[in-house]
Design a protein that fits this description.
seven-stranded mixed beta sheet, globular, aminotransferase, transferase, Aminotransferase_I/II_large, alpha/beta, Alanine aminotransferase 2, 12% strand, 17 helices, 482 residues, L-alanine:2-oxoglutarate aminotransferase activity
């Protein structure tokens, strides 16, 4: 008798969906980690270094004190009645917690909220957006979500009707997009970033891919732009962003702007501009361009991945469409309240004159400056190795070096039924304990091979990562030299 549930009779959209940053290599790493615990000394390394995912606190980054103080007081309001709290918590954390609790019906952080998020917290987020961009923002345009990912899924659910609906996505891309498009039954329309120009986004490439998709009968609904880039780490120039906005306007596309790395910029000659700011500065109003901007508490300098907080802001959608977005949000009831509070805090951190400002600023600058140094050290290390070329890490949390693999290694990978970069990453893991994601998990120009490496191991561990990687790479190249 056939099994009631077997892989053969599952939803084919689920089978088609892949998510490389937690894929085969990571599962193998977790097995090796268990082996290290049960049989210490049985492997050629003593710890697993997870450089596969942007998860800062798992690698030792400390949370920002002010944010955690406010969360603690908000979750346990009776602390606000105690005299000793004044000596344990900063005055501005106490006053912010009181403000937040006043905005929550019944001061109950354990209760469901409005499906878009608590109104007072959305007001705070809107104020933060307005102060960042210099253009007004409205709490009614904001949907608070459990991280940015659920917002992306909601948009795909909304826009994709069948496999004839396409979404333009950068290649390389963060696999959330390809996975989400597959799950919702649409078609990913790739546009390739130009590695030679530092992962440049060329409008001519967008046009070419859009026309090609349309010629095949695909109705392209939206353009995804990740800025700063994941996995590529580039930061878009303002004039490039203007061209992208005009392109979406002319072609009738929704612009899906993934801006979760907006605080992560490591070069002096680039700065973050939101697509909302660019759109408004070009003179486009509410009715000119449908735009969705995603933000998250998981990235930046805060790195609160496990708290699952984020939001998306929608502008340029009609009232009937907004009702449908609200309906999807309502099916999920609401996002978690801790994440909602954090989203309001990251958009409104302490200001000059607040008691916590100096310590907050020192923590923020310390984290971002350390990330910049780590990015530079890894970038230099990759570029000093035979057969590896790596673009500058301008932003985000990753490097995406290209590995020019010998033909012999490509043949060995084929024999092992693996993509060459997956074969390389697996050998690296088994030799060194370093976990990288192969470029094939993100998409890449055919015939090129990459790995994505986070810059997140603690700074004192970076020299060891570099030493281990260098020894492995030199041995690998020697073994497979043509």
């Amino acid at each position: 008798m056939a099994a009631v549930v077997a892989v053969e009779n599952l939803n084919p959209k689920v089978l088609k969906c892949e998510y490389a940053v937690r894929g085969e290599i990571v599962i193998h790493a977790q097995r090796l980690q268990q082996q290290l615990q049960t049989q210490p000394g049985s492997l050629p390394f003593d710890e697993i270094l997870y450089c596969n995912i942007g998860n800062p606190q798992s690698l030792g980054q400390q949370p920002v004190t002010f944010f955690r103080e406010v969360l603690a007081l908000s979750d346990h309001p009776c602390l606000l009645e105690k005299e000793e709290t004044k000596s344990l918590f900063s005055a501005d954390a106490i006053s912010r917690a009181k403000e937040i609790l006043a905005a929550i019906p019944g001061r109950a952080t354990g209760a469901y909220s409005h499906s878009q998020g608590i109104k007072g917290l959305r007001d705070a987020i809107a104020a933060g957006i307005a102060s960042r961009d210099g253009f007004p923002a409205n709490a009614d345009d904001i949907f608070v979500t459990d991280g940015a990912s659920p917002g992306v899924h909601m948009m795909m659910q909304l826009l994709i009707r069948n496999e004839k609906d396409g979404i333009l996505c950068p290649i390389p891309q963060y696999p959330l997009y390809s996975a989400s498009i597959a799950l919702h039954g649409g078609t990913l329309v790739p546009y390739y970033l130009d590695e030679k120009t530092g992962w440049g986004l060329e409008i001519s490439e967008l046009k070419k891919q859009l026309e090609d998709a349309r010629s095949k009968g695909i109705d392209v609904r939206a353009l995804v732009v990740i800025n700063p880039g994941n996995p590529t780490g580039q930061v878009l120039a303002e004039d490039n962003q203007c061209d992208i906005v005009k392109f979406c306007k002319n072609e009738g596309l929704v612009l899906l702007a993934d801006e979760v790395y907006q605080e992560n910029i490591y070069v002096d000659d680039k700065k973050f501009n939101s697509f909302k700011k660019i759109t408004r500065s070009l003179g486009y109003g509410e009715d000119d361009l449908p735009l969705v901007s995603f933000q998250s508490v998981s990235k930046g300098y805060y790195g609160e991945c496990g708290k699952r907080g984020g939001y998306f802001e929608i502008t340029g959608f009609s009232a009937p469409v907004r009702e449908q977005i609200y309906k999807i949000a309502s099916v999920n009831l609401c996002s978690n309240i801790t994440g909602q509070i954090l989203a309001s805090l990251i958009m409104n951190p302490p200001k000059v004159g607040d008691e916590s400002y100096a310590s907050y600023r020192a923590e923020k600058d310390g984290i971002l400056q350390s990330m910049a140094r780590r990015a530079k050290a890894l970038e230099d290390a990759f570029n000093n190795l035979e057969g590896i070329s790596c673009n500058k890490a301008e932003g985000a949390m990753y490097l995406f070096p290209q590995i020019h693999l010998p033909q012999k290694a490509i043949e060995a990978a084929k024999a092992a039924k693996k993509a060459p970069d997956a074969f390389y990453a697996l050998r690296l893991l088994e030799s060194t304990g370093i976990v990288l994601v192969p470029g094939s998990g993100f998409g890449q120009v055919p015939g090129t091979w990459h790995v994505r490496c986070t810059i997140l191991p603690q700074e004192d561990k970076i020299p060891a990562v570099i030493t281990r990687f260098k020894a492995f790479h030199e041995a690998f190249m020697a073994e497979f030299r043509d």
